[in-house]
């Protein structure tokens, strides 16, 4: 015979197991999101050196709709709980004639890092429907950090 005290203990035990499962799934989701962003950014270089421009062009030509050339050199510091922190040294091939980082690659980078932040807590890649960016001053060749928070 099960008493009400036994039911309460069983219920609390069940809740604790559910929380442990959710925590474990959250950790897996976060690491999956970080690995995805690292894989996307690292696929644009060969052996960690200069971008493999020929390989990237071939991948784009073979029907891929995404060129990771814009994410070359992205360093992922962390992706966790709807947040992502990355840095990138702006390479010369993404700058205009005056040495300013072009807005297209900036927008793509913001979109990709945002996707990883969302993926860290949703376990799915979501797409941007509307992306509004205000540029206040040019970014020169050098290092930039990006922090994205979702929710």
Automatic annotation (TrEMBL):
Q: Can you tell which superkingdom this protein's organism belongs to?
A: Eukaryota
PANTHER family registered for this protein in UniProt: ACYL-COENZYME A THIOESTERASE 13, THIOESTERASE SUPERFAMILY MEMBER-RELATED
Q: Where is this region: Disordered?
A: 1-54
Q: What is this protein called?
A: Acyl-coenzyme A thioesterase 13
Biased-composition ranges, Polar residues, are 1-15
Q: Which organism is it from?
A: Rhynchospora pubera
GO MF, one annotated term: fatty acyl-CoA hydrolase activity
Keyword terms, alphabetized: Hydrolase
Spell out the InterPro entries in the cross-references.
ACOT13, HotDog_dom_sf
Q: Where does this protein have compositionally biased stretches of type Basic and acidic residues?
A: 16-38
């Amino acid at each position: 015979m099960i008493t009400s005290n036994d039911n309460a203990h069983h219920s609390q035990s069940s809740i604790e197991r559910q929380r442990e499962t959710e925590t474990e799934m959250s950790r897996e989701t976060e690491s999956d999101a970080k690995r995805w962003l690292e894989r996307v950014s690292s696929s644009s270089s060969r052996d960690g050196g200069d971008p493999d421009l020929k390989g990237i062009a071939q991948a784009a030509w073979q029907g891929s709709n995404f060129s990771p050339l814009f994410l070359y050199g992205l360093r992922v510091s962390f992706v966790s709980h709807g947040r992502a922190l990355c840095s990138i040294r702006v390479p010369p091939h993404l700058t205009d004639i005056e040495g300013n980082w072009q807005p297209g690659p900036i927008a793509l980078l913001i979109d990709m890092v945002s996707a990883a932040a969302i993926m860290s807590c949703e376990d799915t890649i979501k797409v941007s429907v509307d992306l509004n960016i205000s540029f206040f001053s040019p970014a020169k060749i050098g290092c930039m950090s990006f922090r994205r928070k979702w929710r």
